[in-house]
Amino acid sequence: MSDPRSDGPDDRPVPETLLDEAAVRECVDRVAAEIAADHPDGVVLVGVLKGALIFLADLARALRDVDVEVGFIAISRYAPDSGRVRILHDVDVELTGRDVILVEDLVDTGLTLGYLVEHVRGQGPRRVEVCALLDRPARRILPLTVRYVGREIPDVFVLGYGLHRADLYRNVPRVVVADRELVRTRPDAYVPALYGLGGGKAGEARC
Predict the structure, then answer these.
(1) Beta strand spans in 55-126 (E)
(2) Tell me: the pLDDT tens digits for 89-109?
(3) Which residues are known to be catalytic?
(4) Which of 31, 61, 125, 129 has the most neighbouring CB atoms within 10 Å?
């Protein structure tokens, strides 16, 4: 039986599309509408680098009728799933008394994000909420409320639209389901399929 991940005799794996470009836009627009309704007086979006960069940029543009300020925070994880992080770049926007939304590409265990929420709260905002393009609650360890969610997904490994492996695939404009073990050993395995050098399965997923 042929491997469904491959496409042709040269064994080029083809990922399944979870969110196509239209679905991503729908997620961004819906989340932006929810944020605008909750924060008519303005909001600070704090993106967690690097993964949230693309989502945050589109989200900020979608918030056309709300005063938006953007900041970033960059972290370095000490150990997988430990929840302990080191701040490499802290938010350089004044947060005191303001409504702040931490923007992530994907939330799963909640450990690192829980740390970041408490870190940002220490800077005196009026309130702190979390926004994520994707929420993977099946892997949650730390109870954490994600106020704004583009799409809840099962326990699958995803790439594209900011999500990466070895810094590849961040600029792919859709989200695809990939083989975790395959990209662990071959990080560039999906490059032919996702960068115009091979075919791909069309997806119709919507938020």
Answers:
(1) 68-77, 85-89, 99-107
(2) 999 999 999 999 999 999 998
(3) 108
(4) 31
